[in-house]
């Protein structure tokens, strides 16, 4: 597997090792750390000259395989190795985008677990279209409003849909959309929020959450709705 990766990705990698350890999430029994890129001399030095050690945790892979009978060892190993090598490449380039993405994944896990989370975490995900972000299989569509609307319209794969906002909803709101065949691994979520204000730094509010049903809007052949 290592031989299939361009040599440039290994510039500064001292070794790739497999550890027998199982590294479990401290709060979620179904989440494990599969790999880690360990910086060896990044502090106080030139990032471009930094070196790293990549560790894959065999015990974590085995633990996930025990939970999922369809667990694909090869695919998960490949994805984990590439992910950790990207960490190293970004450290050497002094680019922290992947670290931000990892924080977004952690926040999304916290959201699913009912733990506190940053309401803007999704913005550190992969932006696949303006205002649309992917984080760990979930898709987030951002809707910026002045106040809580009665309804929200949003585009999805060439069509426009509408959802009703439940009474009592406060902003920011995470609305999990049902009724659309989206072919996602996870959720389709509308994030309805106000434009960021300086007072948000002092009065941050917890997001509200609800499940909503979407209905398609008719298409006007003249181009309108």
Give the gist of this structure.
This protein has 225 residues and is of the alpha+beta class.
Describe the fold and architecture:
The chain contains 3 helices and 13 strands; from the N terminus they run E-E-E-E-E-H-H-H-E-E-E-E-E-E-E-E. With 225 residues, it is α+β, with helices and mostly antiparallel strands. The chain folds into 2 domains: 2-95, Zincin-like; 117-216, HSP40/DNAj peptide-binding domain (Sandwich), CATH 2.60.260. The strands form 3 sheets. An 8-stranded mixed β-sheet has the order 6-7-8-12-11-13-10-9. Strands 1-5-4 form a 3-stranded mixed β-sheet. Strands 2-3 form a two-stranded antiparallel ribbon. Strand 7 (132-135) and strand 8 (138-145) form a beta hairpin. The longest helix is centred in the middle third of the chain and has 20 residues, at 73-92. The radius of gyration is 21 Å and the shape is elongated. Mean pLDDT is 84; it is low at 198-203.
The level 1 CATH classification of the largest domain is: Mainly Beta
Q: Specify the overall morphology.
A: elongated
Query: How many structural domains can be distinguished in the coordinates?
Result: 2
What are the low-pLDDT stretches, counting only 5+ consecutive residues below 50? 198-203
Q: What is the H/E order?
A: EEEEEHHHEEEEEEEE
Helix-strand category: alpha+beta
């Amino acid at each position: 597997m290592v031989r299939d990766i361009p040599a440039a990705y290994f510039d500064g990698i001292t070794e790739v090792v497999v550890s027998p350890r199982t590294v479990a999430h401290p709060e979620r029994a179904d989440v494990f750390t599969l790999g880690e890129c360990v910086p060896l001399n990044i502090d106080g030095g030139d990032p471009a000259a930094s070196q790293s050690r990549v560790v894959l945790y065999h015990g974590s892979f085995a633990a996930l395989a025990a939970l999922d009978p369809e667990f694909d060892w090869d695919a998960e190993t490949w994805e984990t190795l590439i992910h950790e090598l990207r960490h190293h490449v970004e450290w050497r380039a002094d680019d922290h985008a992947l670290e931000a993405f990892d924080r977004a994944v952690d926040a999304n896990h916290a959201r699913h677990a009912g733990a506190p989370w940053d309401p803007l975490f999704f913005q550190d995900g992969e932006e696949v279209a303006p205002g649309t972000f992917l984080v760990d299989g979930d898709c987030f569509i951002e809707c910026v409003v002045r106040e809580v609307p009665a309804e929200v319209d949003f585009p999805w794969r060439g069509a426009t849909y509408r959802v009703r906002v439940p009474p009592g909803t406060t902003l920011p709101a995470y609305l999990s959309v049902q009724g659309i065949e989206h072919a996602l691994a996870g959720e389709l979520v509308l994030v309805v929020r106000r434009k960021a204000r300086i007072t948000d730094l002092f009065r941050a509010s917890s997001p509200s959450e609800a499940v909503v049903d979407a209905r398609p809007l008719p298409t006007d052949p003249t181009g309108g709705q």
